[in-house]
Design brief:
single chain, alpha/beta, Rossmann fold, 2 domains, six-stranded parallel sheet, three-stranded parallel sheet, 16% strand, globular, binds ligand LMY7XDAE, binds magnesium ion
Length: 280
């Protein structure tokens, strides 16, 4: 069997168009502020994509670029100004941050109502209580990709590989709320391959290039690959060996062109959600 490749670009384009159509009906223009500290080349690419996608959806986007040596107090002052700015509905600080900055303190400084990354403890708490408000963009995008495949999550055995706060933990919460039976596996899990093989839905988010091999995948599983790993030869690969896994999976996301585009589309949706909640 050869699994279907899930076209994340297409699903993302449809969501972006949906957000743009809703924005066009609003009596105000939602505002998004993206803060980039330092000059990490990948972060610069992602921030540019966010800015362009927001503008294309009719969102007033601005990027605030700060030097790599920025002091934490200066970054916190920038966030305080954005919190107080009524034209800004969404604020996000691109990660990773330089080592002198405490990312946790920065995230906690963002007004939870403007936290379009969904990383603030208030929004994390809402999600884990089962009343999600602003949900982290990548796991939200994964749920939409799963929906696009038509896979039934209720009662399904789902495995989340990875337990990060940005992807693994919120992913597990969302799948649980969709009535899947969820296992979270990680670097200390005893037999990762065996755990993966039991999964009807497998979400890989470990950041280890092509770690999930074809024989880790159950026949007919739906596989979502969240990994984005740049190899020394310049190739971009996911956490799954895509061709091998596609030989067993019913459907699998490619890298690139799978989850990544959904992260950006969901950011636009979160910005719209935040604007509507703030402005009515
Ligand atoms: N504040 C945040 N920081 C980071 C997040 C986040 O959600 N919020 N996620 C990642 C980076 N990221 C968005 O910020 C992101 C990563 C990748 C893509 C994407 O579209 N990738 C393409 C491939 C792009 C390439 O060639 O490098 C794809 O998968 O098709 C979008 C957004 C960490 N930081
Ligand atoms: Mg991808």
């Amino acid at each position: 069997m050869t699994g279907v490749l899930i076209d994340g670009k297409q699903v993302a384009a449809a969501l972006r168009a949906e957000v743009a159509a809703k924005v066009a009906t609003l009596p105000y223009q939602p505002g998004l502020a993206v803060v980039l500290v330092g000059d990490d080349p990948a972060s610069a690419v992602y921030v540019r994509s966010k800015d362009r996608a927001a503008a294309a959806a009719g969102i007033a986007a601005r990027t605030i670029r700060l030097p790599a040596a920025t002091a934490q107090a200066e970054l916190l002052a920038t966030i305080a100004a954005l919190n107080a700015d009524p034209t800004v509905d969404g604020i996000l600080v691109q990660l990773p941050l330089p080592p002198q900055i405490d990312a946790r303190a920065v995230i906690e400084a963002i007004d939870p109502a403007k936290d379009v990354d969904g990383f603030h403890p208030v929004n994390v708490g809402h999600l884990h209580e089962g009343r999600p408000t602003l949900v982290p963009c990548t796991p939200l995008g994964v749920m939409k990709l799963l929906a696009s495949t038509g896979v039934a999550l209720r009662g399904a055995r789902a495995l989340v590989l990875g337990r990060s706060g940005i992807v693994g933990k919120p992913m597990a919460a969302l799948l649980t709320q969709a009535d899947a039976t969820v296992t979270v596996a990680h670097s200390r899990t005893r037999d990762l391959a065996a755990e993966c093989r039991r999964a009807e839905v497998l979400v890989a988010a470990v950041g280890r290039p092509e770690m999930v091999r074809g024989d880790w995948v159950a026949e007919g599983a739906v596989v979502i690959d969240v990994g984005i790993n740049r190899l020394p030869d310049g190739r971009l690969v996911g956490d799954c060996a895509t061709a091998e896994c596609a030989g067993r999976a019913a459907a699998i996301t490619p890298v690139p062109g799978g989850v990544g585009p959904m992260t950006i589309a969901c950011l636009l949706e979160n910005t719209l959600t935040a604007a509507q909640a703030r402005r009515g």
